[in-house]
Amino acid sequence: MRKQVVLIVDDKREMAEMLADGLAAHGYETIAMQSREALVAVARDPVDLLVTDLRMPEVDGLALLEASRKAAPDRPVIVMTAYGAVDTAVESIRRGAYHYLSKPFKLEELLVFVERALDEGQLRRAVRQALKPQASNIFGESKKLRAALDVLDRVAKADVPVLLQGETGTGKGAFARALHAASQRSAAPFVAVNCAALPEALLESELFGHVRGAFTGATSDRAGLFAEADGGTMLLDEIGEMPVPLQSKLLHVLESGTVRPVGAGRERRVDVRVLAATHRNLRQRVTAGQFREDLLYRIEVVAIDIPPLREREGDIALLASRFLETARERFPASVARRISPAALQRLVEHSWPGNVRELLHAVERAVVLAKSEEIGPSDLPPSLQPARSPDELMTGEVRPLHEVERRYAAWALEQLEGQRGKTAAALQIDGKTLAKLLG
Fold this sequence. Notes:
The chain has 439 residues and is an alpha/beta fold.
């Protein structure tokens, strides 16, 4: 197993070599350098962790930090600073450093943070590797999907904002990751935030950061996601749900290339490609006064319409087969090996209101619950079972109430062509209750 490599940079070479020897004694492979030669090393050499002084005459630690982040976004950086340079150290944290140590410090203290930083670096790389397959998870042969992918291929390297439009579950996140992976920013961070998941005050802080004391609970500075994505790509998922006051601040960021953390007195520059995703009709929301028209123009330089699964003729069987393979890898104890023709026919005939996500979950469920090598219709979720009319439910043997409710909900969903919103409204229940009834 390869030893993890730590690069120690200090313009006082004896200081760098002393720290390098101390870390090497604890099993790390170490390199000691001065600042100018390190500028080349962080861009070229296989280094797992950078430990650098901040105040150096030729190339300062902040410049080295930026060079390291650009070359290897997942590589953690620890900065060392003399007493009295805390402001610069805090700035390094804002720019992405993992931690800073004030000189003088003990080797044992450095060892603790070296171990933690290397663990975090490994975690970042593991997450990035886990995300890569999602970029290639867009597959199918239907004309509408191929048309969307053709636009993706042409715009990936253009470095312009892209608006991804499609129903929930169609794969907008996968499209965003594919755009990032095929762009010139692929080596830099990809950061996603769900605009519908946080209230306005928290979303602003999450996006732009805050300074200590800016509001109750702000006990330390936070750089924010735009700063985290600097040099890379940000996905603003469900942008149609962003509160209007925050939309104006986002517009300012897109126009000026600067962000101002909550409570801060100055702005900082960021270089971020913004992708936006929504299941809403944003032009209707503009008309309703719920979305700024000038912001729409900014994020809709190129729009990609991702088709719902029901409009992707021929892709359902292909996707089901692929999902079966991946589910068997995730659940090796499963006996399932194939999907029966009858079960596949039921998959093809389903309207898929939850789109690709619903199909994925249906196949995974069948793989987990299958009792034989062949997945049959009975292994599929209740929403894919034949719906029975209310009259049929009232004949024959007495059934448990929850069974009758489930079957009636499935029948109602089929009558309304798989439209869950309309079905919930017709049954006078909310969407969560309907989902629970359908299992």
